[in-house]
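B., you asked whether I could sanity-check this one before it goes into the benchmark set. Here's the sequence:
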Amino acid sequence: MRLEVMIQVVLALAFVVSWFLLPIYGITGPGLAMVLTPVGYVVDFLGLRYLVVPPTIFAIWLFALTSSLIPIVWRSTRYPLYLSLLLAVLSMTMLTDTILFQWRYMTVRGYVIQPTPTGYIYVQLHHTPSLSLPFYILVIYLVLTLVNTVTRAKWLRFREWSIVEVYQTRGTMTAIKESLRRLGIPYEEFDDGIRVGDLIIKEVHGMITISRVGRNPMATDEIQGLSPEEAIAVVITHAVQYAFKTGSRVVEYEGE
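And here's what the prediction gave me:
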């Protein structure tokens, strides 16, 4: 898992945990406190406490958590990052809508509408709205999700690379190409494969074939007893030997 995605997950968890500890939004006044918690508006009015549950409240943190988990579960393409961004935007949208719910139905032109044991009271109280830490964490999370989407979660200059992860998520040919690139071994690409020295590697119907120039191909199916993992090892071994013989070099770009 990329470090960029891990940061996104940590921020999402920090948002949810901090919201359970601190209200994300609230208004305060004489004898009045109305705060937005993960389960709804908690209203303290003249010693009485009530819970008002807007219909969008649970979508806020559920969308945020789901947004952070999608790039972990689905990693084969960049589309999970798009979906993650969409859910992060929806989370912020639901928060905005929930705050507008309070503006629309619980305060009107400086008056505060408060629940009572027998109904609601319409009273004018001086009150001050405020946002707290969870809101700013959500904003940072939204910005980070956008950056991950635009950069394909590759904005950090350092990250761990695993040939196993590349093979499992992007296939054998990609694993071979990235391994050769990181080893500094040049290769030639053509329509259906690559060439390293006199070794030709092709992918035919989901199966890797390895052959030398002018010889019959050796298939990497189970009948031949050569798995895709073994095919990667064969290619890398041959490529390293080829590099030592020829002294070949490639240019390594920053950020590769």
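One thing to flag: The helical segments are 3-21, 57-73, 79-105, 133-151, 163-170, 172-183, 228-246. Otherwise nothing jumped out at me.
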